[in-house]
Specification:
The protein has about 150 residues and is of the alpha/beta class. The chain is built from 3 helices and 7 strands. It has a 7-stranded mixed β-sheet. Helix 1 packs across helix 2. The structure holds adenosine-5'-diphosphate (ADP) and magnesium ion (MG). Adenosine-5'-diphosphate binds next to helix 1 and helix 2.
């Protein structure tokens, strides 16, 4: 695992990064999204969904915990574990995380730490004021080369 730092200057730029990732990420990938509320985690998922050709509106699934999108080029599993806190809820999320035919994007992965595979990609988004965000991606060299 190595890391790559990217600067985003708008929600659109973060969406574009997500679109690029859609083309590069192999199915079976798990992506952990770290960052405060409003950092841009869901925005990145929206870009990825767009890149997969998913036309449904992607929203934060905070109230559903998980949402599946099956109509794109690859299945997308969007999890927001915020409401699970440390409850260690056994609601079958493990069936979807690392699902070998889809891409799993997880907001607040720290609340379901036990379910996160060791090879998960880690993306940390920091709000640097206004529309400025720094995005750090920790993944394999091979993947980062294709993203840079
Ligand atoms: P999170 O899921 O991390 O809570 P959201 O993606 O829901 O965050 O919200 C991020 C908010 O910040 C959105 O309103 C978005 O338009 C705004 N925003 C402004 N600049 C950026 C940027 N560079 N990248 C991502 N979002 C941005
Ligand atoms: Mg969100």
């Amino acid at each position: 695992m190595s890391s790559l730092k990217i600067v985003s200057r708008s929600a659109d730029e973060t969406m574009q990064l997500g679109e690029k990732m859609a083309a590069i990420l192999p199915v079976g990938s798990t992506i952990c999204l770290l960052g405060d509320l409003g950092a841009g985690k869901t925005t990145l998922v929206k870009g990825l969904a767009k890149g997969l050709g998913i036309t449904e509106t992607v929203q934060s699934p905070t109230f559903n915990i998980m949402k599946l999108y099956l109509k794109g080029k690859k299945p997308l599993i969007h999890i927001d574990a915020y409401r699970l806190l440390d409850h260690d809820a056994d609601i079958g999320l493990d069936e979807y995380i690392g699902y070998e035919e889809g891409i799993t994007m997880i907001e607040w992965p720290q609340y379901i730490a036990k379910l996160i595979p060791a090879d998960a990609i880690k993306i940390t988004i920091k709000n640097n004021g206004d529309d400025l965000r720094s995005i750090e991606i920790e993944a394999s060299d091979k993947l980062l080369e294709r993203l840079a």
